[in-house]
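Per-record layout

source: Phaeospirillum tilakii
name: Nitrogenase component 1
length: 504
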Amino acid sequence: MPINLKTAVVESREQRLGTIIGWDGKASDLAKESAYARGGCGSKCGQKARRVCELNSPFTQGSVCSEQMVECQAGNVRDAVLIQHSPIGCGTGQVIYNSIYRNGLALRGLPVTNLHLISTNLGERDMVFGGAAKLERTIRDAWERHHPKAIFIASSCATAIIGDDIESVAGQLETELGIPVIPLHCEGFRSKHWSTGFDATQHGILRQLVRKDPEKKQEDLVNVINLWGSDVFSPMLAELGLRVNYVVDLATVEDLAQMSEAAATVGFCYTLSSYMAAALEQEYGVPEVKAPQPYGFAGTDAWLREIARVTHREGRAEEYIAREHQRVRPRLEELRALLKGKKGYVSTGSAYSHGLIGVLRELGIEVDGSLVFHHDPVYDSQDPRQDSLSHLLDTYGEVPQFTVGNRQQYQFFALLQRVKPDFIIIRHNGLAPLAARLGIPAIPLGDEHHAVGYQGILNLGESILDVLAHKKFHQDLAAHVRLPYRKWWLEQEDPFVLARNGAA
């Protein structure tokens, strides 16, 4: 279905894509249940969402909300300000996101500064009488302090409950200040998974920042939708004579505005890029590169060839692919010998996990299980070439213990016990301490581009060798700590027993 930019509120992932946060079984079974149906959309495409049977647990130990994703997206635009129209507690993430932002700037060789995030600090009186006047004052404060080129406003559960009309306030101040003032509807309870927060930020940018009538196309410019990782895409695409326009994190307002002028749009993860890439193609004719993600040889080859086809650089791509294969093969063979017999486990976002499992299989590492934090049965383009789960299965084979779960520690124990890995790869580090208590070291991928491309295969292999060198420390730790769960729960083999058996 077409993306609707006429309304200020983005459709949730559940509505558009059929997103689920609870499932357990073989990866091949999940692929069969999803809208792509293992590569052939058929009559299923065109539906808003594909409904996959979901396991609904009655207990949640902790998670993330959509507003936090807006913090780490809109809040990372370098010459803009993000206002969180919320109680101060919703702004506690500003501390960690400021650290991530500064590290990201350093990785890219950009001047290191602090985030420009402001909370309206709603209190009890505001919850009774409304907080619109407070929001108006905060927008003016943001302008006087920082003179930004755009101001984003993130809603919250509290503002949704009291019904503040943030769109009217934004419209009034946009006229007064002469800069875009962009409302982002991202209340935590609007969607059951935080990835809708990515879409909310991208929706606002597409509506109010992207140049509607670009005077000319920049035929050598490629939009790369990413987070704050190191700059691995510039050297890769430079081999094809292309320039990179990184969005949304660490971008400027002008970087975002010129997205409509680009020759193509790509991403390192379809979870993050699905909405914006599809909308740029729909609204502005900027082609979304429809290919497997750039992980492992097969994925990176296909990804580069499709970029080359779209931008008419096929010859240069083939030369680059051949050189890179020849360059990385010797060290890859050494890594495979060193890692022979090792078993890994991936616990990250959905599409990202599919790519990482492929890289582990390239390294000769056994992967019997994975926990993904949600599952999208289809992406916004609905193109089977972007079916990252089926690409994983067709290229690298089955993952027998494949779990969709919303980052729940109490389930993680049973998941790891089923496969007993030598190490785990993780993005959101809240689960890593539990693995450490079981004697399992974790690789926290703070730089999400670490495993991208041909060099990424070697990068991940080297990181695994490094973390396995600390195995004895984790085994000693496991011998001297206790887990915070009762014996009954530790004896359960099914992490979803509470969902399957109400009597439990």
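summary: The chain has 22 helices and 13 strands. Confidence is low (pLDDT under 50) at residues 38-48.
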